[in-house]
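Render this sequence as a predicted structure.
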Amino acid sequence: MLDKLSNAVGISGYEEEIAELIKSEMEKYTDSVEIDTLGNVIGLKKGNGKGKIMLAAHMDEIGLVITHIGKFLHFVSMGGIDPRVLLGQEVIVVTEKGKYDGVIGAKPPHIQKPEERKKAIEIDDLVIDLGFPEEKIKEIVKKGDFAVVNVKFTELANDHVTGKALDNRICVYTVLETMKLLEETFCDIYFVATTQEEVGARGARVSGYKIFPDIGIAIDATFGLSKDSKEDTFKLGKGPRIGLGPNISPKVFELLKKTAKKEKIPYQIEVLPGMSGTDAVSLQTVKSGTATGVVSIPLRYMHTPVETADLKDVRNCAKLLKAFISSIDEKILEGLKCF
């Protein structure tokens, strides 16, 4: 399933394809599933109705939006993209008339001026080439159509996987795996694949307002240890990261940590001194407030076509979320709701 999630297209604001894929999978493990007005996929597994827990993992990916159409397509980024990783990439351009393969190119170094060779590549230097004549391109592509890199999900050695959009499809997959593990629960559990996180956590704001959970856990990718990155990064395969900071309820943090220790689940702690950069930013201030937590999976090479993760972290994250939810009873819930 993770390969299908990674390979599906769905940039912020255009999540229809990935939403339908997630909805069909959620229907196997929940009592009901709906897609709301902002495109969030909301699955409900009923408990006794005396409390609500929401697991939020965003399904949107970064991508490109077409701004000018001629012999080549010019574009801007949707979400945070480093232009250096785009040159030479294959892409899929998504239009009303279908999907079209293309490549991203730029002026070759042989004909660049000396000063151009010294500059870092910028978005404005790049174009998408579909191979069609200009007249044909203008028939099938319009401004506002979008593109994603055409990189297929791949299994690497030692339980590692790589592909596009693992931020945050690997966490959507983790939520689906958590569904499979859960049995009877005290609270109603809402599994939400949110939209538009990469441009402002908008889906979490809308779905959180609709559900108004007692506890809201954002599941997102965090920075994995890679070449020359030591500070503020986390080792792959050493367990999920539990966030700590003002965007997070101290009581939810402590219960997550206590649960991991009790279940002998490896974990790492990340201090988030400001906003967490996750759906928890929106969930925390829904209506009169929600007790929030952040649990993340370390990811190397974030916002590139080769995001890389360790499936051991996925399994341990699902175990942690299942054990955390299963531990909640009426007394614990009341305690968590009091900040």
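Summary. The chain has a mean pLDDT of 94. The longest helix spans residues 311-327.
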